[in-house]
Amino acid sequence: MKIVVAIKQVPSLADEVELNAEGTNLDFDAVDFVLNEWDEQAIEQAVLVKEAGSGAVTVIGVDATGELDGVLHTALAKGADAVAKVAGEFEPGLTSHAQARLLSSAIIDMAPDLVLTGVQAPDDLDGQLGPMLAALMDLPYVGVVNSVQVSGRTATVHKEYAGGLMAEFSVQLPAVIGIQAASQPPRYAPVSKVRQLAKTATIEEIETAEDELESGLSVRSMTRPVSVGHADMIAGDAKAVAGRIIAILNERGLI
Amino acid sequence: MPQPIEQQKVIQDKVKEHEHLVVEGMDISGHWNRMFGQRAIFDYDPDNLAKVATLQGGESLEWCYGCAKCTAVCPVDIVGDYSPRKIHRKTQLGIDLFTSEDLWLCTTCRNCLRVCPKEVDMIQIMPAVREQAVLAGNVPAELQKAFEDTAKFGNPLGQAQRKRDAWTKDAGTPVPIMSTIKRPVDVLWYVGSYTSYHPRGIDAARAAARIFAALGVDYGILGKEEKDDGDSQRLAGEKGLFEMLAESNIAAFNNYEWQTMVVTGPHEYNAFKNEYPKLGFDRPVQHYTQFLAEHLDQLRPLLKHEVKARVTFHDPCYLGRHNGEYDAPRALLQAIPGVELVEMGRCRENGYCCGGGGGGMWLDSFTAKHTSMRLSERRVREAAEYEAEILAVSCPFEVSRFEDAAKSTGNDTLKVRDILELLDLSLRG
Question: Which residue of B152, B160, B238 is in closest CB contact with A190?
Fold first, then answer.
């Protein structure tokens, strides 16, 4: 049972994000990169599948930041058996098309039984990466999944729908699954362990033959949302606040 | 003069040993003494003790000879059933410390080491064993959350790094940030996580900024470049996290020119004075009480307003026992007009522990399962017994711990104030 998890780094939203001078993308020199949180769920789900049965987990990503190694060492500390990166002259902000091409050509060679990836990412809220990976590898895809169980050549997955509905799918393997959430919260990788692994672990570097990395789309302008309304904070003691609320309700003709 | 008995030779063939002896019809057998037989210790499997002792830092647990002096002073034993001697004995009897809940109760307060004739050093043993537990994934959930938040956000409160200097806005005085002022300063003030983010910690930060301004101190802070010192995470077993934070902080410290570092917290003081030098950072550092006590001649005339109160002082473990500073905080308190300083029974070298050290800050619910009351609750009760109106502190962990404890024990009238807040009050009225 060979499980492959495709991951990527995204700009950290814990810090203020800056736009580049052209106003067409983020200023990637001014942001920190972190592992996409849905990919973190995908790694956890992969390790859980391995622990429930047998197999080996390989975590793979495209090193577009020069900082992917730390993420891969963390994946090893969480229970991945091997890690790999697609190496090359990449810039941060690779489109999902480019990610999918680079990752799929590397993953096909691994002959996986199960491919997991985060169902979406802050820079891919429409969740394109998973379906594109599946299409490029000619495999079935199920997304928005929050549990995966494997028995023989079949995976049983739970897919979330709106309104709290859930469906159970049986998927013939190999397949690509887009993970919304692992069946339990991602485990903690002690930094001590990550640092130990950073000294000893081997990261397989995969050279790519892909040269068609354009998505065919270009961003004309990226801006911050314009706020169209705001909340009024009413200051003062309870009596003053209550008085003001009554006045506002009167003004609006609500009482 | 006959020779002293220990120098006299035993004439072997004239000595006979009997386990039981009846002489002239009288049984004169002595009481059985376990020294005659094999020592009970050999009945136990020494493996668990050896497992601890083979760790770097874990060696001294084996040195314990069970005198129990530590049990008498252990702050956890006073509210629970835990002390180094008990740990040693339990481990001898087969308990695996690596998976035992006892592993997380020590606050590394250092009172046991102070009295231990064998120098059994829990400050080394606990981090060494905890590190193995952390690597194996055996960590109480709330502590793990603090580790995760520290790794992710650079502080155990899980607050955004970009908000680390947000407190400066309402300090009432400009707070110079090194990356903005771009010039050398006399004092690099390391503010610390709880002082930067915790709603009550911020009060001490703002007070310090106003005091520094009043004294005309040429200082700067690191602002968003500052991260948690990581010392308590190290003591709680996450050495790698400590090293990661230390590397980041040391790079930030070395980025600027300054003469002395002043820190708000005793844990940070301990980190920069005793632990960061092992990683290559060895510069002068002072706790704020030491820095201000040195400037008392300039400070005293500024303390114009009376703070009329009966005040008692809680010695922080990491300022007092760990680093030997007992006088500076007291000198500051005594300089405030109106303050009547009273000492609690457990003070100075034998000061009680607030429970926040060694990771205890992030093990509140866990520890509560093993103790009859929180250590902080025991301490505020002591302060109340001495009829103190204000419990003065000088560690950012303590303000919130003791304020909560004062409420939960019904001692609401006891105010908890950082010495910085009291000085600021006297300064401004």
Answer: B238
| Residue type for position A222 | M
Measured CA to CA, the distance from residue A112 to residue B247 in angstroms comes to: 39
Please report, for chain A, how many H helices and E strands are present, in that order. 6, 11
List, in sequence order, every beta strand (DSSP E) within B299-419: 309-313, 339-342, 390-393, 415-418
Reading the block at residue B229, the tokens are: 């010192």
Q: Domains of chain B, with CATH numbers?
A: 40-135 (1.10.1060.10), 141-294 (3.40.50), 299-428 (3.40.50)
State CA B85 to chain mean position distance. Answer: 19
Domains belonging to chain A, first-starting first, are 2-207 (3.40.50.620)
CA distance B162 to chain A (A): 6
Q: How confident is the model at residue A212 (pLDDT cuts 50, 70, 90)?
A: confident
Contacts of residues A166-171 at CB distance under 8 Å and 24 or more positions apart, as own/partner, are A169/A142, A171/A140, A171/A142
Alpha helix ranges (H) inside B348-397: 364-368, 375-385
Q: If you ran DSSP here, which 8-state letter would residue B138 be given?
A: -
Backbone phi and psi for residue B322, each to the nearest 5 degrees, phi listed first: -75, -30
Q: At A156, which helix (H) or strand (E)?
A: strand A154-160
Q: Which residue has the tokens 């307060």?
A: B109
Model pLDDT for residues B252-300, shown as the tens digit of each residue? 999 999 999 999 999 999 999 999 999 999 999 999 999 999 999 999 9
Q: Which two tokens stand for residue A168?
A: 């159970």
Q: Using one digit for the tens of pLDDT, what is the confidence trace for A154-169?
A: 999 999 999 999 999 9
Type and span of the H or E element at A251: helix A238-251
Grade residue B10 by pLDDT with cuts at 50, 70 and 90. low
CA B49 to mean position of chain CA atoms:
25
Is A246's pLDDT higher than 90? yes
Residue B177, number of CB atoms within 10 A of its CB: 17
Q: DSSP string spanning B228-289?
A: ---HHHHHTT-HHHHHHHHHHHHHHHHTS-EEEEEES-HHHHHIIIIIGGGGT----EEEHH
Torsion of CA B112, B114, B117, B121, to 10 degrees: 60
Look-up: residue for tokens 């500390």? A77
> What's the half-sphere exposure (Cβ side, CA atoms, 13 Å) at B17?
4
Residues of B within 8 A of A192 (CB-CB) are 131, 134-135, 238-241
Asked if B111 and B77 touch (Cβ cutoff 8 Å), the reply is no
Per-residue model confidence as pLDDT tens digits over B61-112:
999 999 999 999 999 999 999 999 999 999 988 899 999 999 999 999 999 9
Contact by Cβ (8 Å): A14, B153: yes
B141 touches chain A (CB under 8 A): no
Strands B390-393, B415-418: pairing is parallel
d(CA B155, CA B218): 27
For B397, the token pair is 């962990």
> Which of B324, B337, B334, B256 minimizes the C-alpha distance to B292?
B334
Interface predicted TM-score of the whole assembly (ipTM), two decimals: 0.78
Phi then psi for residue A61, to 5 deg, are -150, 170
Min Cα separation A251/chain B (Å): 34
CB spacing of A193 vs B135 below 8 angstroms? yes
Residue B388 is which amino acid? A
* Spatial CB neighbours of A104, under 8 Å, sequence gap ≥ 6: A132, A133, A136, A137
